[in-house]
From TrEMBL:
Belongs to the class I fructose-bisphosphate aldolase family. PANTHER family: FRUCTOSE-BISPHOSPHATE ALDOLASE (PTHR11627). Transmembrane segments: none annotated. Keywords: Glycolysis, Lyase. This is Probable fructose-bisphosphate aldolase class 1. One of its GO terms (molecular function) is fructose-bisphosphate aldolase activity. SUPFAM superfamilies: Aldolase (SSF51569). It comes from Devosia ginsengisoli. Signal peptide: none annotated. One of its GO terms (biological process) is glycolytic process. It is an enzyme of class 4 (lyase). InterPro entries: Aldolase_TIM, FBA_I. Pathway: Carbohydrate degradation; glycolysis; D-glyceraldehyde 3-phosphate and glycerone phosphate from D-glucose: step 4/4. It catalyses: beta-D-fructose 1,6-bisphosphate = D-glyceraldehyde 3-phosphate + dihydroxyacetone phosphate.
């Protein structure tokens, strides 16, 4: 089991490839559709994801895995082809989001706790039967004048560990996502505070993973980058973000972890790409770094598609471009000039 889990993790971290996060909940995708005046219908959700998954060059050359929702894992394209079959043809590993969302933590700290452990063992068995090779669970950590509390960090770390060991029991690689979100109180969410909180969260997460008996060689980490809050006046350089993020990871992430795939966390498309590329230009890291982006891969493609199947070719060109740029970033060879020229 250990060997097969590590093999899946290594394939997800194949050089120059990354993970497409296409696991938007119905509520989240409704908000994205609303921005381009589209209703949130089953057929439109299907068409949108079909457009992404049938972007042949992007999927075969730059994407190693796709995080799906329960709906999408069992969904079929308009011609009746299962999405799982489309991904298999592109040699892309299907993954599955298994948490049930983040809910208010008891108390007055404005924090959240992720739920979904009840019945997870049975659900994972089913997902494995459907071909899921990896899974994702997102913990949400808030920064404000009283948060994060020790209780919230420990509770989310414990849930991540329980999720991870259940995944490995089912033969599924757990992607562990403890996200320090960027929309906290701007007066408290400095880059310095983000670095300290991110380090604390990672330290507690790996402590719980070890206590639970999780095989670190059969998992992946999906963390936030070290950034000031999105409403902060701080404007760090790309190099500073890269340096601070790598420093925190070196201090708190064991070398046994096969790889790190970052979330984009509210960054613009180019910011997410440039920060990743700069991190990959820093030498001496014990693990490869790549992307596990949602919005930062899909933004332009979503607007170009605009709910019309006849726009598939143009939208696929836009998606392929962003996938290629992030592939270059995963290799540390991206430049803004290359991006704009392409």
């Amino acid at each position: 089991m250990t060997k097969s889990l590590n093999a899946i993790a290594q394939k997800l971290m194949e050089p120059g490839k990354g993970i497409l996060a296409a696991d938007e909940s119905e509520g989240t995708i409704a908000k994205r559709f609303a921005k381009i005046n589209l209703p949130n219908s089953l057929d439109l959700r299907r068409d949108y994801r079909e457009m992404l998954f049938r972007s042949t060059e992007a999927m075969t050359s730059y994407i190693s895995g796709v995080i799906l929702t329960e709906e999408t894992l069992e969904q079929h394209a308009a011609d009746g082809t299962a999405f799982r079959a489309i991904l298999a043809d592109a040699d892309v590993i299907p993954g599955i989001k298994v948490d049930r969302g983040a809910f208010p933590m008891p108390g007055d700290s404005g924090e959240k706790i992720t739920e979904g452990l009840d019945g997870l063992r049975q659900r994972l068995t089913r997902y494995a039967e459907l071909g899921a090779g990896f899974a994702k669970w997102r913990a949400v950590i808030t920064i404000n004048d009283v948060a994060p509390t020790r209780n919230n960090i420990r509770a989310n770390a414990h849930a991540l560990a329980r999720y991870a060991i259940l995944c490995q029991e089912a033969g599924i690689v757990p992607v562990v996502e403890p996200e320090v979100v960027g929309d906290g109180d701007p007066g408290n969410h400095s880059m310095e505070r983000c670095a300290a909180v991110t380090g604390d969260v990672l330290e507690n997460t790996f402590k719980e993973l070890r206590l639970a008996g999780v095989d670190l060689g059969g998992m992946l980490l999906k963390p936030n980058m070290v950034l000031p809050g999105i409403n902060s006046r701080e404007r760090p350089s790309v190099e500073d973000v890269a340096r601070r993020t790598v420093a925190v990871l070196r201090e708190h992430v064991p070398a046994a972890v096969p790889g790190i795939a970052f979330l984009s966390g509210g960054q613009t498309d180019e910011e997410a790409t440039s920060h990743l590329s700069a991190m990959n230009q820093i030498s001496g890291k014990p693990w490869p770094l790549t992307f596990s982006y949602g919005r930062a891969l899909q933004n332009v493609a979503l607007r170009t598609w605009a709910g019309r199947r006849e726009n598939f070719p143009q939208a696929q060109v836009a998606f392929t471009h962003r996938a290629r740029m992030n592939s270059l970033a995963a290799l540390g060879t991206w430049t803004g000039e290359l991006d704009r020229a392409a």
